[in-house]
């Protein structure tokens, strides 16, 4: 599963490489607005006639991508590193399947480490059922749920969550690396 995700991560890094050089931050509103220059992006890459990429850039998913990843100061991740620093490596591996597979496996390993920082804790052994356990007839039926008690617990949980401060993630924010300009990819 991680290798498939790594392949798509690499594909989107190739597809959108240089997108940060076509972002413009507009600060005339109370909340900054980020604008993406589609024509400049397609023109600099020589892909103005490419219907697929044009449709991708016009889609709602890409608009969400720009609003989420456009701010110049936010938490960086593996995608940002790929777009900013691995452009030359991806270009050099084009036509060399063993190198591409090696890179995909490295990315998959990084994805796995990001999701499981403590692998020895993440995997717990589940004991095998004893022999003949499926023949037991003394298994008690599942008890009925008391609807009144469920509502009571829900109300208690809501009361506690309304008084609690919002949970804040400890992600470290940094300046997002821009990477090379779009014109260098041609």
UniProtKB/TrEMBL annotation:
It comes from the Eukaryota. Residues 1-76 form the UDENN domain. Coiled coil: none annotated. One of its GO terms (molecular function) is guanyl-nucleotide exchange factor activity. One of its GO terms (cellular component) is cytoplasmic vesicle. One of its GO terms (biological process) is regulation of Rab protein signal transduction. InterPro entries: dDENN_dom (IPR005112), DENN_Domain_GEFs (IPR051696), Tripartite_DENN (IPR037516). This is MTMRD protein. It comes from Polioptila caerulea. The lineage of its organism: Eukaryota, Metazoa, Chordata, Craniata, Vertebrata.
């Amino acid at each position: 599963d991680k290798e498939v995700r790594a392949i798509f991560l690499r594909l989107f890094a190739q597809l959108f490489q240089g997108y940060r050089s076509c972002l413009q931050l507009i600060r005339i509103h109370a909340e900054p607005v980020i604008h993406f220059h589609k024509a400049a992006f397609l023109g600099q890459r020589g892909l103005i006639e490419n219907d697929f990429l044009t449709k991708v850039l016009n889609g709602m998913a890409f608009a969400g991508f720009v609003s989420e990843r456009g701010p110049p100061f936010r938490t960086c991740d593996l995608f940002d590193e790929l777009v900013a620093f691995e452009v030359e490596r991806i270009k050099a591996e084009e036509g060399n399947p063993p190198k591409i597979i090696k890179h995909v496996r490295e990315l998959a390993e990084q994805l796995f480490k990001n999701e499981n920082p403590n692998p020895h804790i993440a995997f717990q052994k589940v004991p095998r059922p004893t022999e003949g356990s499926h023949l037991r007839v003394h298994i008690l039926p599942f008890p009925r749920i008391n609807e009144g008690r469920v509502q009571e617990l829900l109300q208690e949980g809501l009361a506690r969550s309304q008084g609690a401060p919002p949970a804040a993630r400890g992600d470290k924010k940094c300046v997002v690396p821009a990477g090379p300009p779009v014109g260098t990819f041609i």
